[in-house]
């Protein structure tokens, strides 16, 4: 069947009314290089061909590989109950809870998700969710700029380079000064970060564990930032928060992160989940929407959208964000994951990730030519130095059935021989041992 709603004769009739002889003439005022690519659509395909096409794309996720790949997105176990509940039509087909009287189930799930993010980070308020970890970090940056009226942002080099790229892209047309500082021994370089903070700085953005998997305590940087009226932002790995100091315990004003590890399967580009939590004074600067528990005139409890971005539609340049939606289904999966594991289950998962990563370090130390970076403590991810190009090595490891890790030279010049290796609770002792053996085989070729 055709999905084109108009016939050729109907389109011709509309063009005549517009005074144009063709579609190209209708859009002639738009430069050709700026016209949407959708004008040149490919030939139509059958349902079978479309299905095969998307199955081919899905196969690019390398689901058959044993994954030691991280860099912000991790291969964690997902309880079967999550798919069973999240695929119910009440959740799966719902768009957005604008009408609370018919959306109580979705609103309650979002409210409970927000509560879990607050408990996980220690901060006062969470929004209903954002698109992904990088978007959430950009929104936190914008919150700090609006809250302080300043235009300078100090950005740690240990922040995920994918997030940093997104941050620079989103702000390319804005008058914001970014000062990027390098890491030292894998951690935030205090000798570079602290002097960069001044009374013109709106925010300092840090990450824990950072992109190299290194754990850090940023309490001292936050204290210096607050003494100058600077908003402190931390990007976090939610599984690690079960064992590490929370953003609240370190004094941060805003915490953001990628929620993919909370029950969302790895996919070639998403959809993923951005989460955000903030201290109470910043709640009205938060983007998106916030669900609250309320009571009606008869005292009956219910859930409503208490703060939402609908007001942004009329605030124009004063708007805090252009985001007025949320990743409700992804947030539901995160809520289900945290509910099923519970506090102790999340701690057990985090401990398994950490312990297995340290076991992997020991196995990899025994491989000729491999140097494990150990200058700072790590959680479940760590860097190793190879005698050959890490990208080349990762390509060879795919042939042996392993997604070996993230070649750091892609984002960090001079680190072409470094590979970032991630270990989750799913990896067995056998898989870790076989991974070390396969790496040894590749390096001996």
Tally of helical segments: 15
Q: Based on the coordinates given, report the CATH architecture of the largest domain.
A: 3-Layer(aba) Sandwich
Which percent band covers the strand fraction? 15-25%
Decide which structural class fits the backbone.
alpha/beta
Cα Rg: 24 Å
What is the name of the CATH superfamily of the largest domain? Answer: Type I PLP-dependent aspartate aminotransferase-like (Major domain)
Give the domain tally.
2
- Cα end-to-end separation: 54 Å
User: Helical amount among residues, as a percent range?
Assistant: 25-40%
Characterise the protein shown here.
By secondary structure, the chain is α/β, with parallel strands linked by helices. It has 2 domains: 66-75 and 343-444, Aspartate Aminotransferase, domain 1, CATH 3.90.1150; 80-337, Type I PLP-dependent aspartate aminotransferase-like (Major domain) (Aspartate Aminotransferase, domain 2). It has helices at 8-18, 23-26, 47-59, 80-86, 89-92, 104-121, 133-148, 161-170, 190-196, 219-227, 247-250, 312-315, 328-365, 390-399, 429-444; strands at 66-67, 125-126, 152-156, 177-181, 183-184, 187-188, 201-208, 231-236, 254-258, 274-278, 290-295, 301-307, 371-372, 381-385, 402-403, 406-407, 418-422. The strands form 5 sheets. A 7-stranded mixed sheet has the order 2-10-9-8-7-3-4, with helices on both faces. Strand 11 (290-295) and strand 12 (301-307) form a beta hairpin. Helix 6 (104-121) packs parallel to helix 13 (328-365), helix 7 (133-148) packs across helix 8 (161-170) and helix 13 packs across helix 15 (429-444). The N and C termini lie far apart (54 Å). The mean pLDDT is 92.
């Amino acid at each position: 069947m055709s999905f084109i709603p108009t016939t050729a004769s109907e389109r011709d009739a509309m063009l005549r009314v517009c005074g144009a002889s063709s579609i190209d003439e209708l859009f002639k005022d738009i430069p050709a290089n700026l016209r949407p690519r959708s004008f040149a659509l490919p030939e139509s395909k059958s349902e079978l061909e479309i299905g095969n096409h998307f199955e081919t794309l899905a196969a690019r996720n390398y689901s058959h590989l044993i994954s030691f790949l991280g860099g912000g997105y991790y291969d964690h176990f997902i309880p079967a109950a999550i798919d069973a509940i999240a695929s119910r039509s009440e959740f799966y087909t719902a768009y957005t809870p604008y009408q609370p009287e018919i959306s109580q189930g979705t609103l309650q799930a979002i409210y409970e998700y927000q509560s879990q993010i607050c408990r996980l980070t220690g901060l006062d308020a969470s929004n209903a969710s954002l698109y992904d970890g990088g978007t959430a970090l950009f929104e936190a940056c914008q919150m700090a700029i609006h809250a302080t009226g300043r235009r300078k942002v100090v950005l740690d080099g240990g922040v995920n380079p994918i997030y940093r790229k997104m941050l620079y892209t989103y702000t390319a047309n804005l008058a914001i000064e970014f000062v990027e500082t390098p890491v030292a021994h894998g951690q935030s370089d205090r000798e570079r970060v602290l002097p960069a903070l001044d009374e013109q700085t709106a925010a300092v953005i840090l990450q824990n564990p950072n992109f190299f998997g290194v754990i850090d305590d940023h309490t001292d940087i936050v204290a210096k930032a607050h003494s100058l009226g600077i908003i402190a932002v931390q990007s976090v790995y939610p599984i690690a928060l079960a064992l590490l100091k929370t953003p609240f315990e370190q004094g941060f004003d805003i915490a953001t992160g990628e929620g993919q590890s909370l029950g969302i399967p790895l996919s070639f580009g998403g959809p993923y989940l951005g989460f955000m939590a903030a201290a109470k004074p910043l709640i009205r600067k938060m983007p998106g929407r916030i669900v609250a528990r309320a009571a009606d005139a008869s005292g009956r409890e219910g859930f409503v959208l208490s703060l939402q971005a609908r007001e942004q539609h009329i605030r124009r340049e004063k708007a805090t964000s252009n985001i007025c939606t949320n990743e409700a289904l992804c947030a539901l999966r995160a809520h289900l994951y945290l509910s099923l594991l519970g506090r102790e289950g999340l701690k057990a998962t985090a401990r398994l990730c950490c312990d297995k990563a340290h076991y992997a370090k020991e196995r990899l130390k025994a491989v000729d030519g491999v140097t494990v970076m150990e200058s700072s403590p790590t959680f479940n991810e760590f860097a190793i130095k190879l005698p050959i190009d890490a990208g080349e090595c990762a390509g060879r490891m795919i042939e042996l059935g392993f997604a070996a890790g993230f070649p750091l030279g892609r984002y960090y010049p001079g680190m072409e021989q470094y590979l970032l290796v991630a270990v989750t609770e799913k990896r067995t002792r056998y898989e870790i041992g076989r991974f070390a053996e396969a790496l040894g085989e590749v390096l001996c070729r």
